[in-house]
Amino acid sequence: MQKVKLDQIDRKILADLQADGRMTNVELAQRVGISAPPCLRRVRALEEAGYIKGYHADLNAQLLGYGVTVFAMVGLNSQAEHDLVAFEQTVAGWAQVRECHMLAGENDFILKVVARDWDAYQTFLTKELTALTNVAHVKTALTIRCSKSEPGVPVDMPNDDATVD
Questions:
Q1: CA atoms within 13 A on the CB side of 86
Q2: pLDDT tens digits for 26-70?
Q3: Domain spans of the chain, in order of start
């Protein structure tokens, strides 16, 4: 990875692509106020430096039949590194787990799980998650609605030290 120091144009590129990753390079260049060739070079440099990890479509879970979103706080019996990694590797294979974060505190992980309905989540909980030998407890929080879902991070907050080697 090459070193990239972010300037205001780079931040605008990141913000615009985060909001709409499908826009053309020409449209992006117009939005950030530069011509298309240097805009494309900047985008490629941001990709190579790791600032842009990928491009994704934001799918409608309800229309695809996933009516339930649950956050499951998981506590493990052992926090030895190999046990943590083994849990993360298992979770990586479960399609219904959309996010997995290791935590500091009472729980070891929080999982964002989608399911078609409550029964499907309970089946996952009892046959997959709590069936793991290292899982000590699971606390479930069923979402009622989502009032905000912003992808990514706020890029409009300048940080003069934002560089990647």
A1: 13
A2: 999 999 999 999 999 999 999 999 999 999 999 999 999 999 999
A3: 4-57, 68-142
